[in-house]
Amino acid sequence: MKALAISLILFAIAITAVCINAAFIHNTAQDIKDLALSVVDGESEAIKELTDYWNNKRKIVSLTVGLREVDAVSEQIIKLCACSELKDKNTIYINYVLLCDAIDDITRYEKISLAGIF
User: Domain of 32: which CATH number?
Assistant: First the structure.
């Protein structure tokens, strides 16, 4: 009976950790999209805010997300920041869309589903 209780507690802890991780990844992705949109809008401090935010969160995100997806987001952030300094609106918008796609790849892998649990 003790083994069953311990198993249920460990299962609940694991499910809680998965939910917390999914919420963290989702919130981080949304924050990056918001910061990237402010880069597209041409706000002066937006580039620094975006790169600083991503550099702080990248280490934590890479614990549960594949490095290929994390590197793709990093690459698109670099491209978006470089294009925003050139002031070419079309290229900035294209890179913003590509960044959003890379972020969507990260969140797609971190969605909670019953099929993934069992």
Answer: 1.20.120
Query: How would you write 18-79 as a 3-class SS string?
Result: HHHHHHHHHHHHHHHHHHHHHHHCCCCCHHHHHHHHHHHHHHHHCCCCCHHHHHHHHHHHHH
What is the per-residue pLDDT across 48-101, written as a single tens digit (0 to 9) for each?
Answer: 999 999 999 999 999 888 889 999 999 999 998 888 888 878 888 999 999 999
For residue 72, which phi and psi values (nearest 5 degrees)?
Answer: -65, -40
Residue type, 54: W
Looking at the 3D structure of the chain, how many domains does it have?
A: 1
Q: Which domain holds residue 28?
A: 2-117
**Percentage of residues in the chain having pLDDT higher than 90:** 48
Position 8 scores a pLDDT of 92
CA distances from 10 to 14, 18, 36, 74, 76 (A): 6, 12, 39, 35, 38
Q: Is the dihedral of CA 88, 94, 97, 99 positive or negative?
A: negative
